[in-house]
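Just scan my protein:

——
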Amino acid sequence: ASRCIPFLVCIECSNIDADSEDDDSGTETSKYTEDQLIRVFKWYGSILKNLDAVLTSRTETIDKNQDIYVTQSLLLESFSKSAIECHNRTFSSTILSSLKKALAKATSAASSLAFLHPKSLWAMRGAAAIVKALDIIDPGVKINDKSNEMFHTLASNLAESNHFMRMYTLEILDSFPKRPFVTDHADIDLADDLEEEPSYRPKPTGKGSKSTGD
């Protein structure tokens, strides 16, 4: 079902503009379509919020929570596709307002998912999908404002053998501001490497004389 919704949203968004060009009957149809799309985004927001609450309240191992975070990841990806298509195809302020409210909830859920299950490919896939949606719909907004914590949590994924794990992780980390190589010059001890131990220097010898050893 989560994979079918983006396709249906795409069709409905396309119908809004077509219906608005018709007569009174078209206006009525357009209003009905708007209401349906708003219901879809409210449903997304509600489900994602509930799943996030359940996932953060559980203390079981990752295996016990797999059904929850896999479902959440599928919904995040589905929402991302629906939101992007709707954003690109409709100019209705009412629909776009509902979309952004749902996007805020999806962003919070994606951030929690990435922190709770950083080693899950499903979690990285869902979070990366929301990063893509944010980049298109609300440029400049990040998945969270904890870039340092996110980097330290996900950095080890870049050494994973799974190509998709590395790819999704890079997409998430790349959305944050670039990190400088040196963050605080005050932490560098410039005199540390200056105190070298005296090295052995052999005594100069004349031509034909024997060289001295240790």
Summary: The two ends are 81 Å apart (CA to CA). Residues 6 and 82 are 4 Å apart (CA to CA).
